[in-house]
Amino acid sequence: MTALNTDAAPNWIAADWGTTHLRLWAMRGNEVLSKRSCDQGMGRLKPAQFGSVLEAEIAQWGTDWGGIPVVACGMVGSRQGWTEAPYRATPTDPRAQLIRVPDHAARPVYIACGIRQDDPPDVMRGEETQIAGLLAQSPDFDGIVCLPGTHTKWVRLRAGQIERFQSCMTGELFELLAKHSVLRHTLDTDGSDLPAFDAACVEALADPARAYGELFALRAGALLNGFDPNSAASRLSGMLIGWELAATRDLWTGHTVALIGSPKLAALYARALGANGVETQDYPTEPTTLAGLHAAWQTIGACP
Amino acid sequence: MTALNTDAAPNWIAADWGTTHLRLWAMRGNEVLSKRSCDQGMGRLKPAQFGSVLEAEIAQWGTDWGGIPVVACGMVGSRQGWTEAPYRATPTDPRAQLIRVPDHAARPVYIACGIRQDDPPDVMRGEETQIAGLLAQSPDFDGIVCLPGTHTKWVRLRAGQIERFQSCMTGELFELLAKHSVLRHTLDTDGSDLPAFDAACVEALADPARAYGELFALRAGALLNGFDPNSAASRLSGMLIGWELAATRDLWTGHTVALIGSPKLAALYARALGANGVETQDYPTEPTTLAGLHAAWQTIGACP
Predict the structure, then answer these.
(1) Same domain as B79, residue B92
(2) Residue of A nearest to B118 (CA)
(3) B101 and B36 in one domain?
(4) Chain B: nearest CA to A209, how far in angstroms?
(5) Is this complex's ipTM strictly greater than 0.85?
């Protein structure tokens, strides 16, 4: 818990409830009064447990703030979550459409609907709220939004609408290869060799097929030449991001790209895109998510 | 234990000792008298344990066949194995060069050296013996040898020499994605939808970058359209093999490809290559490995 401002009582609570974590912010309008987080993510909870986990976590603030509404985004709204918040189809306004959790007596709880694309099939849940937060800060933004992470999203945003999007499993592939494949003997997961990242990224973007054949060379290079584990990790990161840029080239070419993600990951994407002449803008994750949840909270009167 | 012929005593014992398994064959010349296997692979053994594991496994035959030599290939010869059998550099004759394990009193034990390629870096250990087995059966083979598996090898074999080779992590990637990624919810690991395999393979070979972007579509297609888990598994298999064919195109184009692998996997590669006009020949794993170990055994007089 970080106490930022406890002079005022909150009038709503923001929640980012993903697969692995629950993050809560006590809010007064768009001001953060206090925040907390725990590892009670959707992945470890049964539907009947979400309500008591939420109340127990709020009670950790030393009060139950009974009746104060919660506005949540993320996997809490999936079929395996608390209450399914159905996907809305593209093209659509990313600004949150909320459903209300039935039968939770302590307070009203609202969950943002995810977004689906039917052809090619794709889904997002949580990112739509971050994109709504970007629009709250930059209403006229027109271009591509990239949200790097476990399943990085590339989103074409035009005239306030999500036209289409593309998910890439880059973050998950990096984790699997770096921690669970034969490359785990070879990689230091904290790659910081930027020239190695740059070179691998250029190569993979120019020739993604060849990059596939070079994954095992990271292992062989370590066995034969003692290839440095830090450089190997940077090289794998560059290969996967280069590959992803090749897969999404028709999305980002000629556009400004807004990056919503952790500073470290966003910096790598900015670097890779910058090398291809693409201008990027940074939208840090937390304030952007909160701006999107705030915009959703403001719609509550209109909630079904 | 499968008793095939116990009338005769063996004059040598063949061993394929990999990361996960130890496979033993009691041999008289090139005739298999009996075989057995256990899960005491290199991955779970310390160097000091290999000798007693080997003797205990041989003793399961009801005799210790003391003094009868063992000829082994595979990860038993790696740095983490029993005794390191150093890599030989390409170009080189795949026919085994053996090192003898020091200080094993019960019998002479010989291990085949692996092969390395310095640029681009690559290694094999065990496959060289299978390729030697292919040459024992087809001395004039000129073309490409493909050994599909966890780390599939593509090997240019000319005039009895391995000129160069390329490893692809296709088998390991399939395992990681099918069992440990978000796709695990979506895939039945026994994909048998051959039209789905064919289509994905063609697409990935034609446009490997796009295939990268379509991995997550397997998950989204299951969520939105109830995409069949069996077809999804076949599609992932086709995507990865198509990608691998794109990465190795300069190796297999215009050549005959000899396939050394399990019948199921070899059939998928034969199908994918056949669709590209490439003729394939099957060399089943066990007899080919034994032919290579037999050729190695015949060289023992020349062993250092």
Answers:
(1) yes
(2) A224
(3) yes
(4) 5
(5) yes
